[in-house]
Amino acid sequence: MNQEFIARIEGHGNLKIDWKKNQVKLNVFEGERLFEGMLVGRTAEEMHWITPRICGVCPVAHNLAALRAAENALGIKPNKTTVLLRDLMLCGQIIQSHVLHLFFLSLPDYLGIDRGTELAEKNPSVFKNALALKEVSDEIVYTVAGRSIHPITTTIGGFHKIPSKAALKNLLKKLEKTEQAAQKTAELCARLDYPALKVDLELTAQENDSIVSVSSLNIKNKKKSSIKNYKKDIEEEVKDYSTAKFAKYKNKTMLVGALARLAIYQNYDSEKYQIDFSNPFYNNFSQALEILFYHQTAREIIDKLLEAKMDEKIIKPKNNSSFKGIGAVEAPRGGLYYEVYLDSSKGSGRDTIIKSANIITPTVQNLTSIEKSSQALLDQTKNRSRKEIERLLIMLVRAYDPCITCSVH
Amino acid sequence: MSKPRVAIYDFTDCEGCEVEIISLRERLLALEKRIDIINWRLGQERAEFGPFDITIIEGTPITQHEIDLLKSLRENSKTLIALGACAALAGIPAIVKKEEREKWYKKIYGEKYKPRGLDAMPLSAYVKVDFLLHGCPVNGDEVVRIAEELLSGKKPAYRGYSVCFECKQANNPCRIIDKKPCLGPITQGGCGAICISGGSPCYGCFGLHQEASIEALLIILNNLTNPQEIERYFTMFLRQTDEYQNIIKPRLKNKK
After folding, report:
1. Contact criterion met (CB < 8 Å) for A238 and B112
2. B20 shares its domain with B60
3. Cβ pair A150:B137 closer than 8 A
4. Minimum Cα–Cα distance from A351: chain B residue
5. Binding residues for Ni(2+), per the UniProt record (chain A) (predicted)?
6. ipTM above 0.95, yes or no
7. Which of these three, B85, B116, B151, is where a domain ends?
8. Do residue B135 and residue B185 come from a single domain?
9. B120/B168 same-domain check
10. Which among A114, A188, A354, B23 is least surrounded, fewest beta carbons within 10 Å?
């Protein structure tokens, strides 16, 4: 490897290849910030302020998972306006994250350039689409969350401030204009040349209150478990070469994120677009299809918000709440799980003090699979030069869109 | 004249300030034309290792590797800029006290784990820093302003007023008058009072402004809330500042 850490991924990691043994390991070097420790002694209301700082690429996902966990602990069911606005934030978040990853981190591999902004000269129409989608997704999150990174309007039970209908109408107009950019991006990714690879993985995604999984070799057979059992089913292991833990789902190597979601939700045009679910490189294509899907979903949500009366009321904590809660969100990179225990004797309501917290991020669930897929790539490309294999391995790690800072947290 | 050679590095953090730079979009393209980015791990594979005219560092140096790299970057750079609260103040990672790290390593990773992290300190604890670009995350307009000042050969200046000034401009009701704690009065402007405008508190992520009346604010805060909450406010981003360690912490201790 010519660099200490893999370039164009979020966070600090590297692949260690033992050419003699034909083995590859994923080393993670990110410093530990100890967020689960950081939360202890803080108030429930401070949790969704602190934890978005786990990741600047998917802060909205962390904000929402923290809110859901706290609301679950305090017996709060948010109103319809809040639910819709949060869903809209998440659409913006998924587009933001996928656009950043696709155009600035992964696409350069497929298009033979070094930096995303080189597209401005080499492929101006593609770059124009990238900027349009980046702008509109930042705008969605800005309009609802108050800032495009690290939300400021959200609170336990609702929003400090909700957007006006005029602001939402404005957003809808912009989305109407950028849909073509989303469409074009899907078409561009349909034409890319994905390196060959076949891996047997458990594709896993949240669906309602369940964790659903299918085999990458046969996506028809869905298996389900309850999100309540997330800690037992998603088992984390500490490795001596990594500051991030490596997880498995029911003892199987799992893959989470765009590719897994498309396999499980089937929310794309499968006649027009062919996806090989056993090839993790297709995660990049899946991200493009999700950009289109969540772009359309954002418009539908705004339509619903505009039709009904906006309810600004913040729901108060219940007196007889359990003080323990789980919050789960499908973040851009896959299932995100928060669990929080509050100390009923310290503080009250939203300001109840946190006793303990647990967070499992999507990339933790992908690390075992990145290693397995890298090994498979090494085994399946034996007739290539070392340089070429290294290039493909790094490209594979990028295709996963790992968030190493999330995985260490 | 050749273009200034620029490096962007990131230590332990969320990388949100770099995302803020990418979110500048067209303005980033315009800036890029005036510089030569020779090292940016998040953005490109191309990597040259100095000498650098301008080195921008995001994140908190937590591991020994990061501390050593920081020192060598300082030696190799004419101008060194801290990007965001983690680099400028130690920020969110410094919520965890050094003496408690051991406890949390054991609890989170188990007894056998060999940690890499030492302590969360700002860049300035180890090297001279030429300018602190504050914020969690940084404000895009401020990034452009400072970059333009640097590129035109000027020494960038800090905002000479507090968040209160911008908060008034934003027409927000005053949190302190509404009996809610706020660090706006002692915090440097430049953020546009965005958090308060969105309904959230100000925890001082832009750092203390030069003439901050910390003691006066402490008196006001003591009338509004308890020492525990005041401590939580000040330790969100400011734990590693001299002002917190030398003025605020001793006074809170006496109250508890």
Report:
1. yes
2. yes
3. yes
4. B229
5. 55, 58, 403
6. yes
7. B151
8. no
9. no
10. A114
Is B215 a domain residue? yes
Range of the domain at B223: 163-255
The answer to whether the annotation marks A406 as part of a ligand binding site is yes
Q: Is the peptide bond before B51 cis (omega within 30 degrees of 0)?
A: yes
Task: Closest CB to A33: pick one of B15, B32, B93.
Answer: B93
- Residue B156 included in any domain: no
Query: Quick one: which H or E segment has residue A125?
Result: helix A124-145
B62 residue type, one letter:
I
Choosing from B124, B151, B178, the residue where a domain stops is: B151
- Strand (E) or helix (H) holding B9: strand B5-10
* A29 neighbourhood in chain B, CB within 8 Å: 63, 65, 116
Q: Model confidence over A328-353: pLDDT tens digits?
A: 999 999 999 999 999 999 999 999 99
Residue B138 lies in a domain: yes
Amino acid occupying residue A126: V
Domain identity same for B52 and B27: yes
| A295 is annotated as contributing to ligand binding | no
pLDDT in tens, A161-208: 999 999 999 999 999 999 999 999 999 999 999 999 999 999 999 999
CB-nearest to B19 from A37, A56, A238 is A56
Q: What is the DSSP letter of A86?
A: H
How much is the pTM? Answer: 0.97
CA distance A299 to A309: 17
Closest alpha carbon within chain B to A58: B16
pLDDT value at residue A2: 46
Q: Which of B44, B194, B232 sits opposite A152 (nearest CB)?
A: B194
Rounded Cα distance between A50 and B58, Å, is: 18
What is the spatial distance between Cα A406 and Cα A10, in angstroms, rounded to a whole number? 9
B157 assigned to some structural domain: no
Does the pLDDT at position A366 exceed 90? yes
- What lies within 8 Å, CB to CB, of A99 at 6+ separation is A130, A133, A134, A137, A291
CB B188 within 8 A of CB B162: yes
Tokens 């027009």 correspond to what residue?
A272
Q: Do A34 and B46 touch (CB under 8 A)?
A: no
**Domains of chain A with CATH codes:** 77-194+282-315 (1.10.645.10)
- Output DSSP code: residue A391: H
